[in-house]
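Hey L., structure's done. Input below.
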Amino acid sequence: MTEAEAVRRVAMMDGRHMFGRTRIVLDYSAIDSSNLLEAFGKALAIHEKNAAEIAYLWRYYKGDQPILNRVKLVRPEINNKIVMNVANEIVSFKVGYQVGEPIQYISRSDDESVMKGVLLLNDYMFTEEKAAQDQEVVEWQTICGTAYRMVLPDREWEADECPFEMYTPDPMDTFVAYTTDLGNRPIMGCICQQKAGQTEYSIYTENMFYVIRGGEVVSSEPHAYGMVPIFEYPANRARLGAFEIVLPLLDMLNNVTSNRMDGVEQEIQAFLKFINCDIDPEQFKALKEMGGIKVKSVDGQKADVDVVKTDLNQSQTQTLKDDIYQSILTICGVPNRNGGSSTSDTGSAVIYRDGWETAESRAKDFEHVFKRSEKQMLKLVLRICNELADTNLKLSNIDMKFTRRNYENIQSKSQVLCQMLAQAKIHPKLAFAHCGLFSDAEGAYEMSERYYKEQLASLEPQDDPDDNNPNNPNDPDNGGGAE
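Output:
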């Protein structure tokens, strides 16, 4: 299904409301050549519905919103169609705040070989531009509620420093199906591609790769991954996009802004009202060109020319617009920029009032959901690295750190750290972990410990090499020095 077809399909669903993407669950314990086409047909039907909604949300994010199709019955020549793309603002904030800094892998073990292996894994991820791909994943998550990542071993003709390749496929062309068994393990992943005017479906199961074209299986071959190499990254259990829950409010904001501009234009381009007088078209043309005309009364009645207009209450309109905008930001967990009206607020009051605490709590909630999918992806990455790069890493050796820079209330956190470090009964590692000052408390402690030891070593007195020199004339033992 192309993007245009998906948009047309959603457009035909008049009055439709979206409530997240549907998870594809199939009543099969395994998929092989005997039931592949049947299972694929069931999964594709659900995916096409999801793809239509994803296409709508994607175009909405880009600015193609319902206000552009607005029809105005009264004075249709004044019909402003203004898009206040707050959906784009929400997505941009979420992506920048949550993965503006690269996600780092850190070692959970003190073993030197494990630490070297984790460092090598970070180098591999740098080679594959994983930081940029993480931003793509989170962008799709925020727009449409789900995203996908694919991992494959390097092919012979594209071998490089990294033994695997990572991709971020379009969720309109990708899906993963799960079993109904306990745990809902993934049993099939699919990527749709257009080749030679035909739609080709590349399907991965736990141990086979199939290609379907024209409703038939045209090729099949085994693979040694031991799992489906396509991994889904849902934003939440409902697979809801960040601005999907406020679509009615976003449409209302566009409508208020457009109507407000219509009101301004209609006041400027108000109708003229002629009372007890009649003018011909030439007189009206002269009125528009010169700004005034001479009129005569009819049957001795008082003649007058006036303007038909209705003043728009701009203050009330601005209050309504601000209320809608603040409601959108509050529901989506995005900080506002009003700064408040008080000049005596403390740092904590500003954080809570302007919504930064809510934004931080939403980001922490996102981390746990993201890590679950990331660990599934790492299982295949480690399998490839251990076989092709001679590493020996296990999933339990690795932790993930979101290096989001969080500087709120930094003075209080620094004071807490200093007070805890001053207590002889509190281990310094606990002080680093619980002060809330560092995103990677373990790494900060290790770095600080090394720096502390280096400073102590530099302060130790150094032996003077001339003290043991028997030829030193200034040495008292050699008869030199003070007289």
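The chain has a mean pLDDT of 80. Residues 414-458 form one domain.

-- N.
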